[in-house]
Amino acid sequence: MIVSLNWLKDYVDIDASVEEFCDKMIMTGSNLETCRRIGEGIENVKIGRIDKIDKHPDADRLKICMVNLGSCESTQIVTGAENIFQGAYVPVAIHKSKIPGPLHGQPKTSDGVEITRGKLRGVESNGMLCATTELGFDEKVSPMFSKDGIWILPGNWDDSLGKDIVKALELRDYAIDFEITPNRPDCLSMLGMAREAAATFGKKMRYPDTSLNTSDEKSQDYISVEIKSELCPRYTARVIKDVKIGQSPWWIQRRLLAAGMRPINNIVDITNFVMLEYGQPLHAFDITKLEGSRIVVEEAETGERFTTLDGTERELDETMLMIKDGKKSVAVAGVMGGLNSEVTEDTSTVVLESANFTSNSVRMTSKKLGLRTEASGRYEKGIDPNLCEIAADRVCKLVEILECGTVLKGSVDVYPHKIEAPTVCARVSRINKVLGTDISREEMVKYFESLEMKVSGEGDDMFVTPPTVRMDLLEEVDYVEEVARMYGYNNLPATLPGCTSRAVFPKEWDMRELVRDTLCAMGANEIQTYSFSNDKILDKIGIDEDSWERNFVRMINPMGEETSALRTILTPGMLETLSRNFSRKIESVRAFEIGNTFMKNLIDSHGLPDEAYNISIGCYGEGESFYTLKGMVEALLDKLGICNIRFIAEHEYGVYHPGRCARIVSRDARGDELELGIMGEIHPDTADNFNLDTRVYCAELFLDLLFEIADREIQFEHLPKYPSTGRDMALIVEDDLEVGKIEEAVRELEANILEDIRLFDVYRGSQVGDGKKSVAFSLKYRAKDKTLTDEEADKAHNEVVEMLKNRFGAVLRD
Amino acid sequence: MQEKLDKVLEYAKEQLEKAATIADTEEVRIKVMGKKGQLTQILRGMGSLSPEEKKEMGMAANKAKAKFEAMLKEKAAIVKEEAKKAKFKAETIDVTEPGIVPKIGVKHPITQVINEIVGIFRSMGYAVYESPEVDTVFNTFDGLNSPEFHPARDITDTFYIDDDIVLRPHTSSGEVRAEKDLQVPYKVIMPGRCFRCDTPDATHSPTFHQVEMMVVGENITMADLKGSLDHMAKKLFGPETKTKFRPHHFPFTEPSAEMDVSCFKCGGKGCNVCKGSGWIEILGCGMTHPHVHKAGGIDTEKYTGFAVGMGVERIAMLKYEIDDIRLLYENDMRFIDQFK
Known about the structure:
- The complex is a heterodimer of chains A (about 800) and B (about 350).
- Chain A has about 800 residues and is α+β, with helices and mostly antiparallel strands.
- The mean pLDDT of chain A is about 95.
- In chain A, strand 25 (about 455) and strand 26 (about 460-465) form a beta hairpin.
- With about 350 residues, chain B is α+β, with helices and mostly antiparallel strands.
- In chain B, helix 1 packs parallel to helix 4 (about 50-90) and helix 2 packs antiparallel against helix 4.
- The chains are: A alpha+beta (about 800), B alpha+beta (about 350).
- At the A-B interface, helix 7, helix 10, helix 12, helix 13 and strand 27 of A face helix 5, strand 1, strand 2, strand 3 and strand 5 of B.
């Protein structure tokens, strides 16, 4: 809502500086968007009258004007404008004057333009006649009459010839744009803002004059109104005869310009003026174009075609509320009038509509038609139906003041259910309880009364009745807010809650943080990627078409195909990140992401999807291998206290290299196998799809599952009292025998004093023969109760070697 | 005899002087004191002497031996010291060559900001409460007193899975869940990921994070809200930070406010971060609307509460002066590495 400070002062006295005004209004709830000075940067521009226009001897397009600047003699100015005429009052930028600009057809500059005397095609010109845009007004608000030409000032300015235009036109003003929250549509009006200002500064309101000197003829003799729909709570019509269309006076135009609205002609300007003043949209019909002298408010016919004022033909449906005459539609209610009933220069009698339409109806219609107007925007937010009559009266008053028509007596007012403001009981004690204050009843009543509310009752109870425009005040809590903002949020004390919380801090939060700390310690950076996914990206990473990863939760209104579903796994986002970094020539990357994944609810198709946290780890670069990543995974699981991990070779999962991929499994408390995740070297085809011309390693684990089986209980174990004895062995085995199998078999040996087995070398080559490999282990033996003799250690070690010979055909290497 | 001893010592002295290494000194020791050493032989030759001579000569020999050992020790120490010096010289390195730096990973800046906020409130006794990222329309709008035609409900604003399920556009969706789940009184903080139909640009992202804060109890007042947030602002942006609460409107709180903090860049004088105003808008908050408490079955006469919602990306961007929100989701390692 743009508020012209000068206009506001018509209704309430403001002595404060503009800064103080804005600050205080902010603190009572009118948030400031911008505050702009109007009439700045204009120096030495005078009001002049064009007394004579001659053709330029050498240029067809140019004219030589003799401009009267009052006491001194006429000055000669050459112009190319076409809309000037003898007797026109115009802004004259004289020699050495300054205007904000930009000059017609030139780009805007920040420090304005200086105008000096000069010659145009050999003819002396002592300055320049100005357009509105050259004086700093937006092209959008240039008065229709002066559009694309010199600004022709409305009315007679003979008394001001030669006077400074800023002073004579009272141009200097502030256009203050306030953010109006949706609960306060009443503030989308000058009177609404004036009420706020009056309450904020403790001043009295001056309401506009709406007393009329009507003719004896009655409106109802000219027009009848019938409401056939519940979407129209009220319709008020008045009739104005002998309309003379013309420019409206400067005092009206000035207000509209400051409010950002283009002056068009007196009738349109008056309806716009009153709309800005009261917040009530108004519309005028040419009565001769209404067949049957009737107004009927009802829904459109399905498929009906109707041409609105902007010349566009639109298709309607049966939900759209229309204004009709006896035979046809003449306006889309609350949105835009029809071309067929437009007021033109020939119009002599108009029907003035001041009506109320329900906000939802206007919103839906405006949305369906893709047509938003100043009026529809206001109806959408909600308007007090009680405004219809007074706003219509105000229009008529301005018609009388401007002498541009004869107002007929009375209105045709159909208002079946009068809206009254609800009286609410607001308790002094409750308000203080919520705010943490000790404000007296007297003080609260003072606030309410400053906002034009009526208060009755006594003691703790205040029965408050607001003005009907305050449609937001329905319950006690709404009055808590009124007191709070009038008391001033800055005056509230600042304390801390006295209660302790019964909520428990969730373990998962700390576990996720532990995972982050662990991975960061291993040199991985945390990433955050979008939660979106789609089928294509799963194709791209090589996931089968019937895989569980495609149980997508899909949006019905995605922004695009690429983001049409929610991710079921994190690996695609990881690969995109690695790819982006690789393409930016980052040599090596270690990264991880902890994020939510989403799976379609397969049990209840209307239920919420299943959400679960996963962790993905990814890396590429020098030194990285399957085993570095495996080591990270092992270290992480170890940190979480998850033991009994096995890595099972996986050859079928399309994301990974078929020979370098493992499923990571463990066992739950009951001994059932649990799949914790998968890891491996990314399949070269997948890497290719992401333009990753390097070996890439990724892992993805089900984090929530890890937390379920995590055991972070720490139990102290005594340090060994007796030394251990080490033995190494190198075995020749079949090449496809997994080291994991050997280790597992060794560990399973019961009654053996083996403490640890560790692989330290794998060799393939001529010395061991084709299809074979040599694996070398270091083993450690220890007894709890004594120092082992060599014989005892040898015995245990031989048992291991024997078992491996028997089980795997392993041959001890010399 | 004494002559012989003197001679041996003379010889030993000469030899030790020549010795350059520990091995050299050892050689001298063997030559003098070894099985066939000169001194050893003299001592062996004493067998033929009379007891008196033996006594005299024994003393002289021991003296000579002690003398030699002292000489040997002294020389050995010198040689050892020199050897050490030589070794150190040989092993001297250029300490200005670069170290081999282990890479320490960095948490994402969004995580860091969330952790910082959670940490502040955790120390004030708040618990984290987490709720789903995909939630019901009821928890997201209706239960939060959102009007039927609120623009946020529009399919151009919020992602829908079906008519009743949305990708939560705010962490406030957790409020009604918390009300139903938790026992009053409670103080919780609800960090999490949210979604809105915003095409990515410098200031918009379809995925973003919020931290919601919610307190319910007896005698919880708007003054408590002010005090709690003022405390947070001072912890988050520095002890000099001032806060300003401006009236605002949200469906789920009343009275509602927006909180500004004094610009942490310029301290309130006005700069490009605060766009000259000296203040930066940080969050929206208010006293929880009774309708929201009712939706969660809370006795609105007995209990009051407040709620706060703040944008994590906005705070991260202001704090670190990041000029494009998309950087947070690009995950360029050179970007993330800056937040160590």
